[in-house]
Amino acid sequence: MRGQRVVLATGNPGKLRQFSELLGASGLALVKQSDFGIEPPPETGSTFLENSMLKARYAARLSGLPAIADDSGIEVDALGGRPGLYSARYAGIGASDDQNLRKMLLELEDVPAASRTARYRSIIVFLRNADDPAPVIGEGVWEGAIATTPRGTGGFGYDPIFIPRGATHTAAEMPVDERNEQSHRGQASRSFLAQLGERVRG
């Protein structure tokens, strides 16, 4: 599959950059769906997996290419697991990363450090075509806690306020290689690549 063009179900250049880094060894040539004029479909799933599947099928159908989609988010224990599926639109439809994390910090303002535990989750789905009955699925979980103030300029999303378990720095302060090694997307990508390799060999 080396050199195979694959549509990535996103218009986010940060996500394209991160997936290109994570999946570089696969040889897949990722192209974001916005390059085809594809707008994201409504995320009506009730789980990260359901949302990943519907985004991948939609992108594959409209582009005519194999597709990769992910759905990911952050779950904060003190917020009852929110924002979860709604992480990208926590502060409203079209909210910026900064608006989302500022809303989270405001909601956690009076929560002590010991109760600020959280985790990132990621599901990655690969479909050979829109009707592929056997998708490749990778999953990853990254445990940590929420900082009281944003720190760092790397990554995106909630990375400036996410402190990985056992660390003192935020995900946004980590070198790219270290972040990709530990992150939920890194874990999901390695699981995905291992299964993709098995399918190609099979």
- Rounded to the nearest angstrom, the radius of gyration is 17 Å
Could you give the distance between the termini? 13 Å
Describe the strand arrangement of the main beta sheet, using strand numbers. 2-1-3-4-5-6
Return residue spans where pLDDT drops below 50 for at least 5 consecutive residues. Answer: none
Total helical elements: 5
Assign the CATH topology: Maf protein
The major pleated sheet works out as:
6 strands, mixed
Q: From the 3D coordinates, which CATH architecture would you assign?
A: Alpha-Beta Complex
Number of domains: 1
Listing every helix as H and every strand as E from the N terminus to the C terminus, the arrangement reads EHEHEHEEEHH
Highest CATH level, the class: Alpha Beta
The helicity comes to 25-40%
- Tell me what portion of residues adopts beta-strand conformation: 15-25%
Question: What are the salient characteristics of this protein?
Answer:
5 helices, alpha/beta, 6-stranded mixed beta sheet, 31% helix, 202 residues
Q: Can you give me a brief rundown of this structure?
A:
By secondary structure, this protein is an alpha/beta fold.
Care to describe what's here?
The chain has 202 residues and is α/β, with parallel strands linked by helices. It has one domain: Maf protein, CATH 3.90.950. It is 31% helix and 21% strand. The chain has 5 helices and 6 strands, in the order βαβαβαβββαα. A 6-stranded mixed β-sheet has the order 2-1-3-4-5-6. The protein starts with a strand and ends with a helix. The mean pLDDT is 91.
